[in-house]
């Protein structure tokens, strides 16, 4: 009887330990809320998510590989516009006509070439490195247009150099993209100016203290139905 009693206690103890182990594995340690949210984020298999802006992402993979640009759906376009309106607080300012001509970027020009023409950017141009992570590190005042698909990104955070150059595409028409950045820049007190280049590129520039930007927007018609955008920013440390 004693042997059977001891054996029964041992079996119960083993089952209890297993149950505790399963419970511990299921619940795990208390996770950081930001990390938990990022890990529970939807997997990027939905076409509406494949081009999502990572500007507010808690965790971003440091990769040079851009996500493939998938055909946008009407729902995705509507969602991008809704996200843009939310960022702007429901405000959409009228954009004035271009008051001057701007110099075009050189054919085949690099991100460093673009950065070099931004006030304060010349000293940083030769120090930038590439990586999609830089799109997520744009200043909050000037993010990638909501759900825009980043094609390339460059940046530097070293000493006095805090600069970004990001190229992305969006199905939103150029006029709406310009209106978004005009409103956003005005809200951030950049006092933006609008100009055109001879190759039909829309240009917005602005400066606020030691922060400055140069935005280039052009219609991709003839190659695709997307709007092509290149944004260069310089922010003092």
Number of strands: 7
Write out the strand line-up for the largest beta sheet, numbering strands in chain order. 1-2-3-7-6-5-4
Number of helices: 7
Radius of gyration: 25 Å
What best-fitting shape do the alpha-carbon axes yield? globular
Task: Tell me the structural class.
Answer: alpha+beta
**Poorly predicted residue ranges:** 1-12, 14-63
Order of helices and strands: HHHHHEHEEHEEEE
Averaging pLDDT over every residue, what do you get?
A: 79
Largest sheet: 7 strands, antiparallel
What helical percentage do the residues reach?
A: 25-40%
| Total of domains | 2
Fraction of residues in β-strands: 15-25%
How far apart are the first and last residues' alpha carbons, in Å?
Answer: 78 Å
Organism: Tsuneonella flava
Protein name: Lipoprotein
Keywords: Signal
Q: Which descriptors would you attach to this protein?
A:
237 residues, alpha+beta, 2 domains, seven-stranded antiparallel β-sheet, 32% helix, globular, disordered N terminus, signal
Descriptive notes:
This protein is of the alpha+beta class and 237 residues long. It folds into two domains: 2-30; 36-234, no CATH class. The protein has helices at residues 2-27, 33-39, 74-87, 111-116, 122-125, 133-136, 174-187; strands spanning 129-130, 149-158, 161-170, 193-196, 202-208, 211-219, 227-234. A seven-stranded antiparallel β-sheet has the order 1-2-3-7-6-5-4. The chain is globular and about 45 Å long.
